[in-house]
Amino acid sequence: MELGFIGLGRMGKNMVLRLLDGGHRIVAWDRSRDPIQEVSGKGAVAASNLSELVAKLGDTPRAVWVMVPSGDPTEQVIRDVAPLLKAGDAIIDGGNSYYKDSVRRASWLAEKRIDFVDAGTSGGIWGLSRGYCLMVGGSEAVCRRLEPLFQTLAPKDGYARVGASGAGHFTKMVHNGIEYGLMQAYAEGFEILKASPYDLDLRSIAALWNHGSVVRSWLLELAESAFEDDPNLEHVRGYVEDSGEGRWTVMESIEQAVPAPVLMLALQTRFRSRQSDSFQGKVLAALRHKFGGHAVKTS
User: Is the torsion defined by CA of 139, 81, 12, 271 positive or negative?
Assistant: First the structure.
């Protein structure tokens, strides 16, 4: 198939390379010249702007994949590229957009008779070699037309249309919320192991658990790799960002009155990781000193 691809960041560039390996014709654009030159050297057609990208695509119905940061960047790209397209063309948002934004964008584009597909994409930097898990939302007919792209990007059984517009990003949102909880459980478990009276080899334990254990997973494989690189993680600061999906998942649980204490605490722990000396900790220490005379550590 033929596809216009906007956004050649860490995931976008590798997705283009995987699509090229699958025999698709890709017209690519990014704000930076270096990734454009890199993918054009592998067979992609370079575009210097959005107008040129659309012009270099063939006959309608055309398809454009947007792979830029969620929020305003995605909104702006979609607003800029939509007037360049015609009825029957499709825009695919493969970023981590909020599902309610995707529902709104689908409705706005439908007024222009442009199809919209939200493709929740998981796979990270390993997607080029292992494939990307794709959770796709949109009309069944449009998703079927674009299926060769999804099948090339995904490993075997790694792609599914999960529902109407917004369903793909909703499913990816919950996926990432679960990811927060899993990562937090591993982090707490390995800290308990490290604090034990035994001289435990955390890399070996991570490797062991991946052979027949009920907690085996790809995340555990990555933990093994991390401990192999730096056994005590001395070169890693315990500062953990969140990219939004965990927050949205917790917000959705509140909105739907669905209890999700593990996911909420995992998110809160990420917030705490960014505070070297939290004010609430200071308040707790001051209160313990006031009511019980407990010693207070001073800086």
Answer: negative
Residue after which a domain boundary falls, among 117, 136, 164: 164
Which tens digit of pLDDT belongs to each residue from 173-220?
Answer: 999 999 999 999 999 999 999 999 999 999 999 999 999 999 999 999
45: domain CATH number is 3.40.50.720
Instruction: Give the residue among 233, 235, 264, 234 at the shortest CA–CA distance from 249.
Output: 264
Residue 295 lies in a domain: no
Q: Which helix (H) or strand (E) holds 206?
A: helix 202-209
Q: Select from 120, 122, 128, 117 the least CA-distant residue to 19.
A: 128
Catalytic residues: 172, 179
Identify whether the C-beta of residue 75 lies closer than 8 Å to the C-beta of residue 68. no
Report pLDDT for 78: 98
Peptide bond into 197 cis (omega under 30): no
Which residues, 6+ apart, have CB-to-CB distance to 54 below 8 Å? 4, 62, 64, 81, 84, 85
Same domain (yes/no): 27, 155: yes
**The whole model's pTM is what?**
0.92
